[in-house]
Recover the amino acids of this structure.
């Protein structure tokens, strides 16, 4: 009986630009530069003979609220993508999905999306579907745009409404000292984040995209940091001042760059000096914030 194991890695938007042309789905077209963090959920996918989809979730990360938590199966995106593939490809066998969560949920890090992507890639292998990347992306589009990137992974340019994925043919340099900081507030939804964006304030810093690519090509961490950008930072910070305070605090404590992850509310800071990152972590924890140390490899 087939069993597969995956490290479903968190995604990070190093450059996130919204273009001021609202789509018919209510989203702005995007230009992202995405990579993956060295923090991941552990996903186990196995065929069962009961014809059902069984999902179990366990929280491993102390920075999350509870060691065990419940999400209704119909609401879980990994379950829904398994259901979609079974229906689309007439699969009669059942699937067991076990997810050990390390990535904080609803944090702008693609925690649910990377799990769903692992299910797409896993079921493709288990049932010998031989899906192309474009077929996987078409499946992903039906449930969430971040899944489109996650089925590909690595260093990618992302366009359209998140469904155009272009892998870049060069590696990103290792960025070792990244601190994720989780505010105590919870963002309402990604749709809410799009709804608060002011059209006149977005898509004005696309030069940062070329700048960060130049930094990656020359393996210049300083140039990468200078060109970190996220169009969601300003509107999200206006509604959640704690986000702005964390960003400013990280910079004051030595981060060479800091902004929101995805549409928030998690903030990430990049440090050249590990000791400064550790001092920032201690300070922020003393103020009640949950922190996670990670890297881009």
């Amino acid at each position: 009986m087939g069993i597969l194991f995956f490290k479903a890695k968190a995604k990070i938007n190093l450059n996130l630009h919204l273009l001021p042309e609202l789509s018919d789905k209510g989203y702005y077209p995007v230009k992202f530069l995405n990579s993956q963090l060295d923090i991941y959920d552990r996903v186990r996918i196995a065929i069962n003979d009961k014809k059902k989809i069984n999902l179990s979730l366990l929280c491993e990360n102390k920075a999350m609220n509870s060691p065990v938590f419940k999400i209704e199966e119909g609401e879980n995106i990994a379950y829904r993508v398994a259901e979609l593939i079974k229906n689309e490809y007439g699969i009669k066998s059942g699937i067991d999905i076990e997810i050990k969560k390390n990535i904080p949920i609803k944090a702008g890090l693609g925690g649910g999306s990377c799990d769903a992507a692992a299910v797409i890639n896993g079921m493709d292998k288990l049932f010998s579907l031989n899906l192309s990347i474009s077929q996987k992306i078409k499946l992903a589009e039906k449930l969430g745009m971040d899944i489109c990137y996650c089925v590909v992974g690595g260093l990618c340019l992302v366009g359209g409404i998140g469904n155009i994925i272009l892998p870049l043919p060069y590696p990103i340099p290792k960025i070792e000292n990244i601190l994720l900081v989780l505010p105590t507030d919870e963002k309402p939804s990604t749709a809410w984040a799009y709804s608060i964006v002011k059209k006149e304030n977005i898509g004005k810093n696309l030069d940062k995209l070329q700048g960060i690519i130049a930094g990656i090509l020359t393996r210049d961490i300083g140039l990468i940091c200078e060109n970190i950008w996220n169009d969601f930072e300003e509107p999200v910070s206006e509604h959640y001042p704690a986000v702005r305070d964390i960003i400013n605090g990280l910079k004051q404590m030595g981060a060479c760059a800091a902004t929101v992850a995805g549409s928030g509310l998690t903030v990430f800071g990049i440090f050249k000096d590990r000791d400064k990152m550790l001092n920032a972590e201690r300070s922020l924890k003393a103020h009640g914030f949950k922190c996670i140390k990670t890297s881009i490899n």
